[in-house]
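yo

u said u wanted the structure for the complex thing, so here. seqs first:
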Amino acid sequence: MDTLKKSIFIIGCICITILICSCGKYYKPTETSSEASTVILAAGRHLAPGEKDGYYCSKILQVWEPLITDNELTGRPQSCLATSWEMRDNGKVWLFTLQKGVRFQDGTSFNADAVLKNFDRMKKGIKTSNFYLLNIDSFYPGLEKYEKFDDYTICLTFKQPNATQPYNMMNYGSAIYSPACFDDDGNFNGPAVGTGPFKITENNMNKYVKLERNDDYYGIPAKTKKIVVKNIPNAEVRYSALKSGEIMGVMDLDAITPVLAEELKKDNRFAVSVSKSMIIRFLLVNGTKFPFNDPRMRRAVSLAINRTALVQTLYAGYASPTVNILNYTSSYYKKIPVAYDLEKAKHLAAEVLQGKKYTMVYCINGADVTQKGEAELIAFWLSEIGLDIKIQSMEYSSMLSALRHGRYDLARSQQGMPNGDPYFIFHSFMMPQGNRNVSDHIGFYDEAASRYMQEVKYCVDEKKRKEIFDHLQDISVEQQPVIPLFNDVTIVAYDRRLHGYDAKPYGITLSAIEMDE
Amino acid sequence: MNMKMNFIVKRVLSVIPVLFGISIITFSIAFLAPGDPAEMTLDQNGIYFPTQEQIEQMRVTMGVNASWHSQYFSWIKKALYGDLGHSYHNKNSVLSELRMRVPVTLQLAVPALLLTGLGGIILGTLCALDPKTLPIRILSHLFDIFLATPRFLLALLLIFVMGEILRLLPTSGVTDYKGYLLPTMALSITTIAVVGRLVKNKLAEEIRKPYCFIALAHGIQHRQIVFLYALPNIILPIIAILGNFFGEILGGSIIIENIFALPGLGSMAIEAIRFRDYPLLQGYVLFTGCTYVLISLVLDLLLYLLNPKIRFEEY
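structre next:
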């Protein structure tokens, strides 16, 4: 009997030893990681969804470039493949001068013909994407014709004045690819070929994308020869991969949670970089029914929420409290003090509720774990002004359905800034026919706001526009069509052996990354 | 042989109404569930907000503005010709999605099955041979611990120990076979405990039966009784458990695939549900339905061959 037991133990031990030995002394993440010039990073989603995606890959991979990008400091349009632009006929006609001496990664020339072929592709219809919807009508509203003046000048003519067209074209609005990489339907026939500092050498769907420096890049070349961006959906696993040395940095939206970022900061091998994000988080209120059809109740809720405590408690300070619906990356953003006044909130709520308690449904996205804690905290604060909150955790798609049918009182939501022009945001939330105003049953109407929106639509005077947007922000804070909570912060974490790994509103600048030898 | 063929044909034919029923139920549930596939395709978790016109246009493009039955019959008509349609959200054909994801799931499921089968039977037998020694008592308690440990916790623990602390294995991804070791372990350990405990209990019952006492009285050694007589007699329930386990992980282990970033069937199912991607969901259900039925057929055949009682009942 003893012999048998010993034999089984020995076999077991041999199996475990073989397993461990097969793993090697230290794990080497991938073949490429052994090459000194390769940097391995990770994101929470696959950043190159491939041929059927309208953009093939995210802009942050720097494979393609737009005609116009954004200035990271001011949020205003900045030249990229278009070196300059000129507005004519009060914004009905726009001329764009293109960068000379640029070649696509396939060796073909970037010129007006290539840009027009990209417009032809957009004309073929809406293309869905994991990033932004590729829809010519959104980026070029009322585009009548597009033509070239010469090899490096294109002209866009619109049906009506588009005073802020360069804002519409920022980044995803004017992505340019080599016409050779499109098929007849306007989809990609292989990896995207752009003019950027990196080209795609391998795209293993949902696993990783390999990038290589474009040595023919017309601008400042990328500092790293090869970069691999892995797809690791789970935040805790990204953290472990970073700690184990398997990856050197995390990037993209929600790259790392605030709590894990704080943990990483304790380890001197790693650093954390933060930047403003284009995403704002807020509470939707169903303004089509009692009690939120009364602006006093919306104001009461806003005043009863201690945003600073919320951000410190649940987000470790990695968020910026706000009462302004306009995201803080916009150049038109007006800094307005974040008010917290429980007494005033109680007074306003009592006026509306007539001293009675009111029970309401607060919908949250069950897949977002932080929303539950946040909802409990907010429910506690709102109980002090007479609101008895029932938190309803829902699957995201079901929650959207509830919002579309107005089956809610309060709901947690978010909004990104598609471009630097605030018109889109104010129109969506504050105009009676505004997209979110209608779809989410916000029920907001303010005569002054509507008047200002009409005025700003065709206004080309920058100073005047700023004044109008200031007024609109004041109205939004006073009337609270929705209850803004905080602006997001982009957090990235990286191994200190990397340099140039600085957080930007939409991730990091890959071409600036450099690794210690 | 004729009886066997008859049995197989009957079982294969019974699959058709089952699959048909599964497809109708799934399609109905997906259709009745709140949420609009067109809106979900355009929405990026609320970051981008599509207009009503865009949503309407997308509904027409996707063909989801038609009635439930016309969408279903259109799908089934194409499916009969081998065309499972295209995914709403990533536009790939459902067959190509399955071709891409099934190998990942198989590479996870087959080693997990082998590890579970071998590990469970070896450890269970070891426990049954001499249950009173200290190492065996520790092993029994380990079974209890693993049985009570959720897989996601085990997965995170394995990542922490094997990946982060010891740096022996990759924390995620499947660039080579090493990428499958941690997910395989995370999937198997709990089931090893289930199988091990079953083997231990069944063997304990079996060796108390009269034929074992008689064998012992004849001077046959205890370990010979266990291996030659008792173990073959308890193999049927173990095969059934392993078959169910295999079927379960072939359908995709959603949590494990998500944690280890494995683009297998489980993550495909989650995407399909999240985006209300009916063609992808139907493709998934059809595949898992076929898999379950096939596994159950193989199990029945195995039991048919191993268990004389079943054969005698047929006669």
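Chain A touches chain B through 67 residues (CB under 8 Å). The first helix of chain A runs from residue 2 to 22.
cya
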